Amino acid sequence: MDRVYIFDTTLRDGEQSPGISLNVREKLEIAEQLARLGVDVIEAGFPITSPGDFEAVTAISKNVKGTTIAALARAVDKDIDRAWQAIQEAERPRIHTFINTSDVQIKYQLRKTHEEVLDMAVAAVKRARSYTPDVEFSAMDATRSDVGFLYKIFAAAIKAGATVINVPDTVGIMLPEEFGRLIKDIRENVTGIEDVTISVHNHNDLGMAVATTIAGLENGVRQVECTINGLGERAGNTSLEEVVMIIETRKDTLGLSTGIKTKEIIRTSRLVSRLTGYMVQPNKAVVGANAFAHESGIHQDGVLKERTTFEILDPRKVGLTKSQIILGKTSGRHGFRQRLEDLGYKLTDDELNKAFEQFKILADKKNEITDEDLEAIVAEEARSTSAIYKLEYIKTCSASDETPEATIKLKREGRVTEKTAKGDGQVDATCKAIDKAVGLKPNLLSYNVSAITTGLDAQGDVSIKLEIGGTQVMGRGVHTDIIEASARAYLNAINKYLSK
Ligand code: KIV
Ligand code: ZN
Predict the structure, then answer these.
(1) Which residues crowd ion ligand 2, with CB under 5 Å?
(2) Rg (CA), the chain
(3) What whole-number distance in Å separates Cα of residue 83 and Cα of residue 94?
(4) Which of ligand 1's atoms lies nearest the C-alpha of 140?
(5) Is the CB of residue 171 below 6 angstroms from any atom belonging to ligand 1?
(6) What's the mean pLDDT when you consider all of the chain?
(7) What's this model's pTM, rounded to 2 decimal places?
(8) Are 318 and 263 in contact (CB under 8 A)?
(9) Rounded to an integer, what distance in angstroms lies between the CA atom of residue 58 and that of residue 85?
(10) Which of 19, 139, 231, 419 could form an SS bridge with 101, CB 3.0 to 4.6 Å?
(11) Do domains 297-384 and 387-499 have the same CATH topology?
(12) Ligand 1: distance of its center to the CA of 9 in Å?
């Protein structure tokens, strides 16, 4: 089997999704889980873009072992120097430098000649090589570039010392067959290409990122750039879980393998969803809530008789288990801790005590506590620990002949502020009361509520996107009462904005 290297860019391209803003602690947590998942390269960030990104890449480089840590840099000295400063303590550091190569981007964005672009690429690779032997060069918008120029710049980058050549479909325009042919042509026409790894980095604007990536693999690509849950700029990037499970499920035809521990896939997907606030659509391949659910009688009948009648993936392969320990209000701390550990959470005693308290409150309201409920409790606790404003109290009143009203109490550094407001509905009144208490006027861009589990006693999971002073932020909140879940999500977004 030919080995495919998995390059994860959740923390770089994934973080470019509108509204995602992860702090250093959250990025470190995701990077640690990516290492557990077995990715070969973690693109930890773009250090020149902000002090926060620099700090996160530095922390990941110091703490996350067993994988290559890459930092992104434009093809300019100051970016490359900053990238190196951030990754120099990594076990295996990589500088990933890129420059636009399509005529449209060279003309309108860079405003340079092709010769100047080529010189910049060569100088950047050389500078990066003076720091580390592992240098990746990307031709941004490769798929809309003049192919002759592409061959030339790739050959020059290889001569200057690049060890990985990346061919991004930056705007997601390629048909799979076309992209496969481009890779084949690059392999046949670029001097020195046989000595380097060919990589692809495809965007999903037309929903073809995974398909074009597979076409690349069929034509000799051996590094795939991808993100958890397909996060990324605009419509996102190639989804890691999909491409890995295609390689695994269709090894008969593709003859490829990866080093991914597929049993960690679900856990990684949920962690990323929880920390970014981006929910996974239920019908998403591999990690969606319905990916292994069978609804119709014919399908249920088939699967009950023999799983493979309608299931090509074994859910256990991606880390889904049916919990054997049923947690309810009579369960003790031991069973609770054990279940959390089985789910991959290692909490401190203090965190465990707080989560256990919340579990008991929930168990009083719900008969059976599922794994999804437990994950929601841990997520809520983590959000509340790092919150600037904490929700202390909420009361809402509404009747068909009265304007809804909400009263909230928020605590900040020991001081409690109480505010009341009226609104179009209870959620609206609650958000207005929060606005009064924090002194901000956010613009609500999206609001989404779903149930974590089935049943009328299920917890509501609210995801919110706000725009505050030109910045977009996402928030998430979970509670059995959807008004309180909404208040928590709204406040979570405000807290994220304030901590930025
Ligand atoms: O989409 C793209 O071209 C990129 C490059 C920086 C690799 O993200
Ligand atoms: Zn990209």
Answers:
(1) 13
(2) 24
(3) 9
(4) 3
(5) no
(6) 93
(7) 0.80
(8) yes
(9) 8
(10) 139
(11) no
(12) 10
Mean pLDDT by runs of 10 across the 500 residues of the chain is 96 92 93 98 97 97 98 98 98 98 97 98 98 98 98 98 98 98 98 98 98 98 98 97 98 98 96 92 91 77 84 90 65 82 82 90 82 85 86 94 95 95 96 97 93 80 92 90 95 90
- Nearest residue (by CA) to ligand 1, atom 8, is 13
CA of 409 to the centre of ligand 1 (A): 45
- Give the model's pLDDT for residue 323: 45
**First-to-last C-alpha distance (Å) of the chain:** 46
Write out the two tokens for 44: 């930890």
Atom number of ligand 1 nearest to Cα 141: 3
* Distance of alpha carbon 462 from alpha carbon 451, whole angstroms: 9
Pairwise CA distance, residues 303 & 288, whole Å? 19
Q: How many CB atoms lie within 10 A of CB 356?
A: 18
Q: Measure 188 CA to ligand 1 centroid, in angstroms.
A: 23
Residue 19 Cβ contacting ligand 1 at under 6 Å: no
Q: CB neighbours of 495 closer than 8 A, spacing ≥ 6?
A: 383, 386, 387, 388, 389, 475
Has domain 2-276 been given CATH number 3.40.50.300? Answer: no
Read off the DSSP letter of residue 282.
T
Provide the residue ranges of all domains of the chain, joining segments of one domain with +.
Answer: 2-276, 297-384, 387-499
Backbone phi, psi, residue 32, to 5°: -65, -40
Q: State whether CATH 1.10.10 applies to domain 297-384.
A: no
Q: Which residue in the block uniquely carries the two structure tokens 């997907």?
A: 269
CATH tag, 387-499: 3.30.160.270
Q: Burial code of 259-278, b = ≥16 C-beta within 10 A, e = fewer?
A: ebebebbbbbbbbbbbbbbb
